[in-house]
Amino acid sequence: MNAPTNISAQTQNRKADHIRICLEEDVQCDQITNGLERYRFTHCCLPELNHNDIDISTTFLGKHLSAPLLISSMTGGTEQAGMINQRLAQVAQHYKIAMGVGSQRVAVEKPQVADTFAIRKYAPDVLLFANLGAVQLNYKYGLDQCLRVVDILEADALILHINPLQECIQSKGDTNFRGLLDKISKLCFKLPVPVIAKEVGNGISAAIAEKLIAAGVAAIDVAGAGGTSWAKVESERAENPLQRRLGRTFADWGLPTAECITTIRAIAKDVPLIASGGLRHGLDVAAAIALGADIAGLAMPFLQAAATSETAVSELAEVLIAEITTVLFCTGNTTLYQLKHSGSLQRIE
Question: Which residues neighbour 132 within 8 Å (Cβ) at sequence distance 6 or greater?
Answer without folding.
Answer: 103, 104, 105, 108, 141, 145, 146, 149, 158, 159, 160, 161
